[in-house]
Every structure is written in C-alpha cells, then in structure tokens.
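Hi,

I'm pasting everything inline rather than attaching a file, because the server keeps stripping attachments. The sequence lines come first, and each chain or strand is labelled.
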Amino acid sequence: MSIKITTKNLNIPNYNRLSVYREHGGYEALKKALSMEPAAVTDEVKRSNLVGLGGAGFPAGVKWGFIPKDTPKAKYLVVNGDEGEPGTFKDRYLLEFAPHQLIEGMIICSYAVGIHKAYIYIRGEYIRQIKIVRRAVEEAQEAGLLGENILGSGFNLDIVVHQGAGAYICGEETGLIESLEGKKGFPRIKPPFFPAAIGLFGCPTVINNVETLSQVPHVIANGAEWFASIGTEKNGGTRVFAVSGHVRKPGICELPMGVPLRELIYEHCGGMRDDRPVKAVIPGGSSSPVLTADHLDTKMDFVGLRDAGSMGGSGAVVVMDDTTCMVDVCANIARFYAHESCGQCTPCREGTGWVSKILDRILAGNARPEDVDNAVRVAKNMMGRTICLLADGAAMPILSYLTKFRNEFDYHVEHKCCDVKGG
Amino acid sequence: MPTLTIDGIEVTVPDKTNLIEAAKMVGAEIPHYCYHPGLSVAGNCRMCLVEIEKAPKLAIGCFTPCQEGMVVHTSTEKVLQARKDVLEFLLINHPLDCPVCDQAGECWLQIYYMKHGQYESRMMEDKIKKHKKATAIGPTVTLDQERCILCARCVRFCDEISKTSELGIFNRGNHAELDVFPGKELNNKYSGNVVDICPVGALTDRDFRFQCRVWYLDTQDSICPGCSRGCNIQVHYNLDRPHHAEGRRVLRLKPRFNPEVNKYWICDEGRYGYKFIDDESRILMPQVMRNGGMEFVSWDEALKASAEKIKASIPEELGVLASPQLTNEELYLIRKLFVEELGATQVEFRVPPKEEGYSDDYLVKADKNPNTKGAEEIGLAVGSAEEILKAAAEKKLSALVIFVHNLVNSGLDDSLVKAALEGVETLIFIGSNFSDTSEKANVILPSATYAEKSGTFANSEGRVQRIHEAVPPLGESLPEWQILNELARALGLDWDYQGTEHIFAELAKDVPAFANLTYEILGDQGQTLGYVPPAEEEALVEHGELEAVRAT
Amino acid sequence: MAVEFPPEVKREFDELVAKYEQTRAALLPVLHLAQREFGYISPEVEEYVAGLMELPPTKVHEVVTFYTLYHKTQPGKHVIRLCKTLSCHLLGAHTIKDHLCRKIGLENGHGTTPDGRFTLELVECLGACEFAPMMQVDERYYGPLTPEKIDEIIDGLTDEPVVENVDEG
Ligand SMILES: Cc1cc2nc3c(=O)[nH]c(=O)nc-3n(C[C@H](O)[C@H](O)[C@H](O)COP(=O)(O)O)c2cc1C
Ligand code: SF4
Ligand code: SF4
Ligand code: SF4
Ligand code: FES
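And the predicted assembly:
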C-alpha cells in the first residue's frame, strides 16, 4: 500500500505558492473545519489517532484537549520546526514544498482550541525554508486566510515565523518556549511547566511538530475514520521517514505507520549501497536505541518500535552496513549530545561530556581497561534524573551500542584499533 | 495544609511547601545545592532527588510541592545512589584542591562528599580548563570558575534580589561558565551575599579570603548597627590567633535569617562595616586633660573627674548628646541618670548627618543608626542638638557629655560645632573610636562597640532585637551601660546594674512601648514595640480592642 | 558610538519587536538583524541591543553565547558549516573536510582562513542527511559532496555571500 498524505503533492511545481496549493484542493479542509464546532474538530483529530510526529508520539487531539477552555489568558500555538535530531530532515521538505499545508493545519488547530496567535519556530539554518514559509504566511494573509475574520468566519489568527539560532535543545518543547521568549533554551521543569498549562509567556500553549500539523487538513478533509484506517491500531495515518546512511536512495519516504523496517529499506530506499548487509539501524533519530539486523521485521510505528526496545522518535532512519564501526558511531553520537546539552542539570552536563570523552578515548585506542564499564555506568547514571529527556536520549542509544556491540568496544580497548573497517 | 509521610513520620505542612522544607520539619535533611529558600527554584543540581511512592522516577525535593497522602523516602538505597552519582558528576571537572581552597570547611561539595560520596576515585579525567581562576570580578568578590558547580544561585540573586543582573552563565553544556559581562563588574549594594549563597568556593569574599580558616571561627548572633533596618547578623571572630589577619578579632559578618527584617541578606555597607571594631582608632584607656594635655588615667580617676565636673554643673548648664548607636538599655540609663537624677534639660540624641544617607526600597535605610526608634520611645528627643551646641557656644553650658557622635563631620554647622566644642568648659566624650570630636574632649571614656556588649536595638519598624557580646571590650573599654552605672556610683547614687537584662526589665516597666517585652520574648528574632502577649491578645480581640491598643 | 542601527534598520527592529507579545521574545531575531548589520555580535553590539530592548547585557550575552549561529568575532566573507554528525560522518565527512581545508587554505581544520575569505565551522546535523556529506555555505545547503563538487562550489563563489533567493521559481 503506497498512500502518501503530507508529501503527496510535493513534486508539483510551485506547490508552495498559494494559488497552486489551492488548485489542488488547498484550504478546503479549513472551510470544512470552520463550518464545524471547534470541539468537533478536536474530536475528529482525537478519533483519527493522529500522534505527534516530533518525537514522543503523543496523540495530537488529546494534547489539544488539555488546553483549558475557559481561561482569561491568551492561548498560543507553537509549531516545532527546530528539526535538530540527527538524521531528521522531513520537516525541511514540508516547510519548503508545502508551507500552506502547515498553515492550513495551524489554522484548523487554532480554531479548534481557540487560539489567535501562533508561532512557527524554525531552526536557524533553514534559511530557505524560513523565507518560503514567511512568503506563504504573507500570501495567506493577503488572501484573508490569516488575520481577522478568516474566510468570513469571525475567527482571527496571526502567525509569526521565528528563526532559531542554533541549538538542538530548542527542539525540546519547553526549551523551545524559553528560546521563543528570548532566552537560552533551558528546558523547564515538568510539572508544573506543561505547555498546555503554563507555556509561552506563561499561557496555555499547544506545541506540535510541523509534520503533525501538516497532517491535520487531511484528517479533516477525509475524516478521522479514513485516517485511522491507515497505519496501526494506536498510530493512525502515515509518517514521513527520513532515511539516510548506507541505503541506495536516501531521502524522505512517507509510508503508513507500522511499515516493516525491511520494506522501508529494500522497497522504498533502493536497498543497501553495494548490496552489503545491514548491520545496524537507528529507527527514530539518534536518540533511539540502535536496532540490529535481527530487527528488520520491526513495525515502524511508536508501538512496534517500543516493543523492539527502541522508539519511533522523529522518524529518522539511519541505516548502517557491515563496514560500520559501532564504536565510531557511538562516539559520534556521544559528541553530539555533549555539544548540545544545555548544561543546566548536573548529570547531563557532566555526563554527556564525560561519556563522550571516554568513548573518544576508546575510539582513539587510548582506553583504559575499565573504560567500557565506566562508559556504561556513566550513561546509566544520567538516566531518569534530569529536567528534560536529552540526557535519557543520549544515554539510551549509547547504552544500546555498548551492550549490543560490546565486543567491538572490547576489541578497541584490547587491540587499540578497530576490527571492522575495511571488512 | 496537606498531610504527608516523610521517612515514616507524618507531618502537616502549609500549602505549597516543598519536600526539602517539609523534610526539615521531621528532622530529615535532603541535601541540595541549587535550591535556596530565598530565591526562585532552578532544579538544576539534581542533588535533592528523593523517592516518592507510586512515582515512576525519583523527584527533586526542591520543586516538588507536598501533596496530601504523599509517601516520601529521603534515604532509600536508590536515593543514596543518585546522590552519590550526582556528586561524582560534580567532581569530574572540579579541581581537587580543597587544601588551598578558601571555602574549605564550609563547602557543600566537601561536606556532602564526606557524607554521601566516598567512592573509589574514577576522577582520573583531564578537567576542563576555564579561564577565570581566582579573579576579582568586582570590589568585593573573587571568582574561580573551575570550582563553580553552575547552580545559578548567584545569578538568581542578582536577578531577583539585588535586581542588578551582573552575573550570567555563558556558553552551554560543560563549557558553561559563570561570569560577569565582558569588562563589567559585580558591583551592587548587596554583592557580598553571593558569597554566602555560593555553595562552593567559586565565589569568595575578597575581604575575608585567606584571613582565617573557617574552622577557627566562632560565631555570635548580633544586629547590624549600620542602619535602622536592623539586619540580623552573625559576628564571626577568632580570639586565639592574634598573629593572623593583622590581629583583628572580628573577621567577617554574615547575615542571619530573619523573615521579618532581612530574610537571608545584608547589604555590603553593613557587611564590611565592621572594621572599626579592631581598628587602630579604638580608644583603649580613659583619658583626662591635665596640665594642658591628655593623660591616660585609671577608670576610677576618670570617673571621679567626670563626676566632679558634672556635679559642679547646675542642671541647666549640663548638656547631653546621647546616640542612636547606643542600646535601649544604655539610653534608658542616660535618661535615668541625666534627666531623672540630675535634672538635665539639654538632652538630645539626634544629630543630623552631613548628607542624606543612601537608601533603597529593599533593606538599606537612610537613617544610619540602629536604634533611633528606641531612643525616641525612651524619650531622649528633648531639645535639639543645635540648641545645645548654641548654648555651649554661648558658654551657657559648663559640661557637655557626648556619646559616640562625631559632630565635626555631621550635618551641623561647622562653625557652630567648633564654637561649641571650644566654648564648653568640660567636654566628656564617651565612645569607642577617636574622632575629631574626641580630640576636643577633656575627659574621654572608652566604650565598647556593639560587638563587645549586649543589649537591644529597636529598628525603624519598632522591632526590638538583641545584640550579644562576641568579643570582649578592647583594652579597658567598657559597655556604655557599665560606664553609666559606674558614673552614677561616682555621683553618689547606689546603682548596681549587673547586666543588661536587669536594665531591660526595668525599662520594660518604665517605658510604655516596651511593656510586656523580656529578653526571653525577644528571643533571637526580636519582637515589636507594643507587643501584646498571645493570651491578652485573644482577650483584646474578643473585645475588639486590639487595633486600639496597637495604635497607641 | 559606532554601534547603532541606521534609521531603516531601526524601523525593521521596531517592526520585529511589534510582532511579539513581549519585547524580549524578539531577542533572537533582533540578534540575527544585528549580525546582518554589524557582521558579528561583539560585546558592544550586545550592550547596544540590551539597551534597545531594556534587558541586562548579561542576558543578551547569555543568549549570544548559548546559540551557535551568532558569531562572536568577525567571520570570513563566507561561512562554511560542514556537518560532522552521524549520516555525514558515515559517508565520509572527514575526507571531505580534509579536501575542503586544503581547498580554502585552512591549516588547523576550523576557523578563519588567513586571507579572511572563509570561516569553516564543523557543526552538528544540519537536517539534510539525504545529501550526506553536506555543508552549508552562507545561506545555502550543498550535497552530496565530493572533492570535485567542493572545488566547483568554492571556485564559483564571489565576494558576496551566497543568498537563498526563493523567488527564482
Ligand atoms: C532533546 C529533545 C529534542 C527534541 N527535538 C525536537 C525537534 O527538533 N522537533 C520536534 O518536533 N520535536 C522535538 N522534540 C519533541 C518535543 O519536545 C515535543 O514533544 C514535540 O514538539 C511535540 O510535538 P508533537 O506532539 O507534534 O510531536 C524533542 C524532544 C527532546 C526531549
Ligand atoms: S537534561 Fe540536559 S539538555 Fe535537558 S535540561 Fe538537563 S542539562 Fe539541559
Ligand atoms: S558561582 Fe557559586 S553560586 Fe554561582 S553558579 Fe557557581 S556554584 Fe553556584
Ligand atoms: S541594610 Fe542596614 S542593617 Fe542591613 S546590613 Fe545594611 S546597613 Fe546593616
Ligand atoms: S536542590 Fe533540587 S535540583 Fe538542586
């Protein structure tokens, strides 16, 4: 089954322009939504089993439902377009080639929840995408799709496109909110700072990933049942996998939730480069524990990946063949987290740096005998004890390499070199 | 008011109490670094992790509010292990140089390590180098970035309390470092407090650095005499090591918590204002003018000389300038001796300052005296300093007794002061330090500083608070109350005050505002003038008279 | 005072700030603007921005040093960000780096070339792993890189920064 939803029209020339988007049915879902009761819109999204595609897989409709109905405070929608998880690049496509799809989803969400101001936070390096989304917002504004009295409905919404400045931690929702408030991206302590209660400017805030919101117009246009019928029992619809590494055809690949990993690699990404065997796969961004060739039948939805001991994460799939040194991969990943830890929590600030130092030492052949065990211990000590999940997101994959490929680490320590390269 | 169980003990706490504070109530200590009860909660050090039944993860005690029915454990194996691990993380980039660290002895890294750490060392990692090692970052504080554990207490202090925001944590991850803005200083009226709240040796006090190892310090509770706020302080002193710190005994002042007055803080003016106690300008012996020069004499001689001069003056020719630097007990004795016994009418305590003192909307008051309120209540504002000096200048006084004041550097007219000090036949100066005024005296009676005596001050809000003797009066100096007692005896009165508590009891009977107050009631946090004991208060509330009583 | 927005940039600043509920929220975009205007964010620029936005300078300095996209010193005419994270690493980012450094004349592997033409930053994932190994030159992404491709890109650069023009079609 090859159903594409959010990426279906990406190849249409100028689909990122309002007129072309409308020619292909754009903003019809919005009209439909505006004719519904707001609560019915949320309900539709709930029943569709649309889950958050930014990392956590939390049901989108349920999240919207957390926003208090009667509050004297303003409410905000924040779109998470920070896309920093290594391996992830799907939002870049959705921003660049279908900005109106996102805007339409945002308006529908805002209407459902009663929001009149929304921010799109896009990572600072995505300059092309930022320019395109800005232009799209202007187009929508001029066409009466944003601003006051949208399509004569009496509903108002303004959107501001916000450029990030280079910090992975601003993908974490509360780090993002702090950043959007003009501060360092220090994640907030949850509870009580659940965005739904105390979010942007201290107000109730919905925060969703670009892709999550890009799905929304289709859920409304085609109905919850249609959407839920695609995908798995708990995870409705499709998701856009961003595949990179040793596959023949790296790129984005939208498939129903729960597609087997094997199918993704061999049917949709052209199989393995040089037909080498799969050695390891990161199934949901670098924070997800690595899978081995034994896991190729894993169903790629949040549930299937959790059952396989990993996670759905951001949908970024990094495929590695048998020439790959796992010590090298693990050390590379550890360096990333050490660089990106915001540095507030002791275990994360010190742990990410320490474990990275140990792994670099193992990689360089300067390790001490106890270093592998030490790396395991340090990684374990980071887990479950910090403000946000970056520490766990660093520790879990690192532990997965250290345990699943322990022999490679031991070999490095003992022989001061690698037995994989050139294999 | 939720009721919860902490380490098996049930406790009911006020709403919004966090677990660290609740644990204190049952005698359990949850170790912590970033949490400070006077600041917002950051929750970053992760030292205060505790186990809450039914919670999936350990929770931080500083940010977790108590909830009804919660069951909390502060020292399960899981908790102890987490603490140990956090300590290990904190030490991984921390220099191992406690022996040369000025914080040693009061460093919470050291203290908790001894208590909760103690593992075989895995610290064989190269430490991250940071660029500020023992660097002065302002007039009062030295920074050592490698010792900083990034708890952000000092940053929050400057944001929330001094509201000057000089400090920040720059860069991120394990390159994060605490610093001032490039080229700027940590320089505000409250800067010294960051040293107190820094849990490690990253911020140290330039004034105190390497003056004395903290384990040689003794402490005594007191009240800052720097202004009429009456901040609660601790005097830190050492009597055994005269070869250190240039022989100074009092080595530093620290704020002492009082929620009604200064919370956890004091201002720099007060903090560093202690130097006069051991200063060279201290008056160490009584002196009397003889043959055109001042001569050191015994107390007996000095008192005798003073008494003779005072006796020789008729009440109208006797001027007294008491001081709001004195305790209530002393001011009361001044009133009793000079006004009641000797009938003096030219009595005053207020001397205008040369210029309006600095004040702000937080702690610091413009009135730089700790006991103006007390002096007012005791009734020593009778005339005005100016009138008394005029009388002196016009040679209408035969004796003028000046306590503490340096009139020469005051807001009074210079020529008037000069004329007065020269015009009066007998000038008795009672004070602790030499000044331009003591210069002019023909009798000098050396008195103790506030750190060398006991008594009470009433701050601008009428809170009566106790000071205690930390160090003995220097040289032959004596507390003013004792001098007054002796002077009264030399004048033939049969006074025999044995201590300040004795005087205070009498004062409380005599001066209405002090009614009902005793040292016991004052305790270590003080009590306000017009105090009504709880039992009486209840009765008054019943009769709807409390407000009326309070208003008096 | 050399550090000051010219009137038209000041207007841009005002418009930016007006978009947000709180002035401080505009800090990141304002710093981007300041960087465009002044080339990099010096402490003087931080103080200027702090003054405009009524923030303590420390808060601006915290932000500038937290995020990687703000230059703390004058960068070269072109800023090259070469990704070193996993997907690019797997496909040979290190060899690309060596070639790139030789090509632009950079000896120690990162920083600014002696002629002030290039600044090379080795960065974490730029979100274009399908083009691994990849890099960003000024505003634009390039990949997959080969030594030949690098030569072609570098040789094609003028003295002006590479700009993403979205209205080209
Ligand atoms: C360290 C960390 C980094 C994250 N980075 C991103 C990101 O780049 N983009 C994103 O959409 N979500 C990211 N998330 C997840 C967000 O916190 C949040 O769950 C998400 O934006 C919610 O949107 P969704 O429900 O639509 O997925 C990250 C989470 C963590 C802990
Ligand atoms: S876990 Fe790491 S990234 Fe997250 S808040 Fe703590 S220090 Fe920052
Ligand atoms: S200097 Fe001290 S108070 Fe400030 S962050 Fe560092 S350890 Fe905490
Ligand atoms: S505010 Fe006044 S009482 Fe408090 S420390 Fe400062 S000078 Fe002393
Ligand atoms: S005291 Fe609770 S995290 Fe620091």
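Residues B 148-154, 178, 197-200, 202-203 surround iron/sulfur cluster (ligand 3) (CB under 6 Å).

If the labels don't parse on your end, tell me and I'll reformat.
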